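Input record (one chain):
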Amino acid sequence: MDKRVFLLDAFALVFRAYYALIRSPRLTSTGKNTNAQFGFTNALLDLINKQKPSHMAVCFDTGAPTERHTDYADYKANRQETPEDILDAVPDIKKIIEAFNIPIVELDGFEADDVIGTLSKQAEQAGYEVYMVTPDKDYGQLVSEKIKIYKPAYGGNDAEILGPAEVCARWNITDVSQVIDMLGMMGDAVDNIPGIPGVGEKTAAKFLQEYGSLENTLANADQIKGAMGEKVRKGKELAVLSKKLATIITNVPVAFHEEDFKLKEWNREQLKEIFSALEFRTLGKRLLGDDFVVPPSSRSVVEKQMPQGVQTDLFGNIISPEVSQSNASPSTASASADQEDPLPAAADKNITNTVHDYQLVATEQALTDLITRLKAEPEICFDTETTNIDANLAELVGLSFSVEATKAWYVPCPADQQHTRILLQRLLPLFTDSSKTWIGHNIKYDLLVLKWYGIELAGSLYDTMLAHYVFEPEGKRSMDTLSEKYLGYVPVSIEELIGKKGKHQLTMRDVEVEKIKEYACEDADITWQLKQDFVSRVRKASVENILKEVELPLISVLADMEYEGVTIDKDFLQEYSVSLEKEAKVAEEAVYKEAGVRFNLASPKQLGEVLFDKLQLDPDAKKTKTGQYQTGEDILSKLAAKGHRIAEDILTFRELTKLQST
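The corresponding structure, as predicted from the sequence alone:
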């Protein structure tokens, strides 16, 4: 059996899921925000389907104080309160995890980091390959040949797997054990770990290269010259404390149970119940079958935030979607689309079991024949293969074209860029034909690549990534993900051609042309098929106007902006930053004067104590689960409205410091 255990840092993934959809929140018919629940569920399924773990567990923080809080009262005190939507989502997420029959591990007095650290070491001893699923860099201290960090995909970036080599390269250290030495010296702003004031990442790495550890650095502090030596000598106690705070505990009283952690059959009834409550219509059908139906809600008006599917222009004005003959709302149209355009039951098709006709255009006659064929087509799907994900730095390796399902052509480009320009001139009659519609997935990238070769596409554009966005604003939008979901087809992974990220990764220029041909043609073919599928979904969701009049016309505008760049007045921004700093200082001093005491204004914990314990501004002040007073913008705004000047000055301070940092 392939013994691979994935240990999930729950809250790190929950926060990511929530904020990934913050611009287009998912709301139920009763106004409940389900960003966190939906995003977490998709991330969980993505791991199960793509990574094929044999064992899994999800680890939570409990909110109870830990030894770190005892050692350092301000540990994590700089963090803002957790949004209510996330707090409300946690019970739902735990129900979802339980319905998938995945164990939840948590223990008062310990953080999820400690639980995962302990379980990782136990699983490693039991012969397992361990993947700690988290974006948190601190986990690097736990990495070994059998324990790795699995950093989930986010913001358009692919997932990363970090072993000892990657962790050491990230920190510029020689051994993963030095991660805690780094954090001890440079601190960690995320967790409010102080470190040695004035010592940053580069200086900490330099000390470790010279002295090997934090302890040796401190022992040789008298040998460090100048102001930096003085900082190290003064910061000894903070450094030792910071290293302890940053060290993940690996002897928590929890146990890795092979049988308990083994992935099992899902509890479909529990999934049906929670998916119905959260109104996960499409996801429910995909996992539970076409029989899954969300019961109609007794409420039809969403009273919280802007409803899902509402689009705005660049100035924040709501764009009214087209109204269908049935006067269906976007939400009901979307539900209808789910029913009339069913999704594939499973992604069981791929390039090896699907008949296709992908042709390499390697001769002059073949190119002439292709141009003749494409001239007759009103719509052409195309894709570029290049040497770099940054379009402004990329060289063309080839172009692929498709005008019908399962058929495509690949035109390789010479390494000599002057010869590539000559080749592109042969295709110019196609590119300058204003009657054509050019289809692509993230077509802005392809437009930018061609602009650097002096080619401007005439005609109209259609982007399947944007089309998906207007009828389903949430979720991932990579071509591979959409292909699996809507076509039931798993495309060839780019890593099969160029390898995984890292110093040994190839470029497309290094791959043999036959492999590129299959890969590139498949991209154009799949994008063509997605376009055919999405046209009806966009129409049924009544968002055609949004796509045609707002999203698609912006593609060329944004491509031009990225190509030309944006001029920045550095002198003005520097002057403005100084001005903002002065204004923020005035607001800060006003707060201290009104409070009658100086404190860390950036610490929600200390701020809450001043406002509600010392000044007694609200006898009914709410607290978070960790016992801290809530001091978010909504709380301060209410206090300011009641005439409390200190709350108004705090809001001003926060606004100015945020603007300055931006």
